[in-house]
TrEMBL record:
Enzyme Commission designation: 2.7.1.36
Pathway assigned to this chain's UniProt record: Isoprenoid biosynthesis; isopentenyl diphosphate biosynthesis via mevalonate pathway; isopentenyl diphosphate from (R)-mevalonate: step 1/3
Main EC class the enzyme belongs to: transferase
Record-listed ATP binding positions: P112, L113, G114, A115, G116, L117, G118, S119, S120, A121, A122
Keyword Cytoplasm included in the entry's annotation: yes
Gene: mvk
Protein name: Mevalonate kinase
Domain GHMP kinase N-terminal: 84-172
A Gene Ontology molecular function term of the record: ATP binding
Domain GHMP kinase C-terminal: 236-302
Length: 329
């Protein structure tokens, strides 16, 4: 039996624009998904998943991966989650050259689902690592990232950038521009605070909305390019350890995302509460539409302000995690 874990992430800068070839800087956060894989005597896959983010609930899926899983749960995101685990196990089997092994898999995730924190990438990375190790194979984190990207690409019908999977596999702050993925060295400690509205956005719809705007208006295309400029300025601020400048740029980035129509009332309310709580800066993270914001704040101010913000279901500190996917036991 092997347990591996991988971190979630926030976008410091660059979501949506990354879809059009601009760079983005996602950062791994100290919130992890843990996956335990134990080989079975048959070729079945049994998945037990526990969501530890809010109230916590459990679902069991018992079936052969060859069958379409028939999962009787009200939560469509959880159903999609089973698709991610199935595909991750397929990748592990492929990497180990062991097509017909079965697994009992336990997923425990402290990362809200579909809320812009990269929960699926973390689960997939941890599942690939745990299942391959269980089969006696140890993969390089870059190979895990690559295989995890293939899983996301498949499950999300081709709508996936390499940002989430690479960031979660490697840890720290990373820079992703098309297929060019790198770790950013010597990053200062980034005091992230997350606000969560309890909801999620529809990534496909939000990405399509930005695409339509970009095609209709030249100034929307310019807005996407301007986000790329923010990312390049942000890289310089990271190198200079300039947290104040990073905060300013996060505020600017949020404004442009809002102009592109991907914010929401609750995300805006949390962003403003964070700023009034003395955050250095705040923005939505991920696809938007609902889910999470990320603020930069070394003090307690943002957490306190968010606790009293209508529409904010949960707030937590989630500092930069320099560890990527790793074996736990
Ligand atoms: O919500 P998330 O964490 O899946 O992020 C989506 C980020 C987008 O740039 C909108 C899409 C992508 O695949 O990069």
């Amino acid at each position: 039996m092997v347990t591996s874990s991988a971190p979630g992430k926030v976008y410091l800068f660059g979501e949506h624009a990354v879809v059009y070839g601009e760079p983005a800087v996602p950062c791994a956060i100290e919130r992890r998904a843990r996956v335990t894989a134990e080989q079975r005597d048959d070729d079945k896959l049994r998945v037990n998943a526990t969501d530890l983010t809010l109230d916590g609930f459990t679902v069991e899926y018992d079936g052969s991966v060859a069958d379409t899983p028939d999962i009787d749960v009200a939560e469509p995101l959880l159903e999609e989650g089973m698709g991610y685990v199935n595909q991750a196990i397929e990748q592990a089997r492929d990497a180990a050259g062991a097509q017909d092994v079965g697994f009992d898999v336990t997923v425990q995730s402290a990362i809200p689902l579909g809320a812009g924190l990269g929960s699926s990438a973390a689960v997939v990375n941890a599942a690939i690592d745990a299942a391959t190790r269980e089969l006696g194979v140890e993969l390089d984190p870059r190979e895990i990232a690559d295989r995890a990207y293939r899983v996301e690409y498949e499950v999300q019908d081709g709508q996936a950038s390499r940002a989430d999977t690479f960031c979660s596999a490697m840890g720290g702050a990373v820079r992703v521009e098309g297929d060019d993925c790198r770790q950013i060295p010597d990053v200062p400690n980034l005091p992230f605070v997350v606000g969560y509205d309890g909801g999620s956005g529809d990534t496909g719809k939000l990405v399509a909305g930005v695409r339509d705007l970009r095609e209709e208006y030249g100034f929307a295309a310019d807005t996407v390019e301007a986000i790329g400029d923010i990312v390049r300025e942000g890289e310089a601020a990271l190198e200079a350890d300039d947290l104040d400048e990073l905060g300013e740029l996060m505020n600017f980035n949020h404004g442009l995302l809002s102009a592109l129509g991907v914010s929401s009332r609750s995300l805006d309310a949390m962003v403003w509460a964070a700023r009034e709580g003395d955050a250095l800066g705040a923005k939505l993270t991920g696809a938007g539409g609902g889910g999470c914001i990320v603020a930069l704040d070394p003090t307690e101010g943002t957490e306190t302000a968010l606790r009293y913000t209508p529409g904010c279901e949960a707030t937590f500190r989630a500092e930069l995690d320099t560890d990527g996917v790793r074996v736990e036991s």
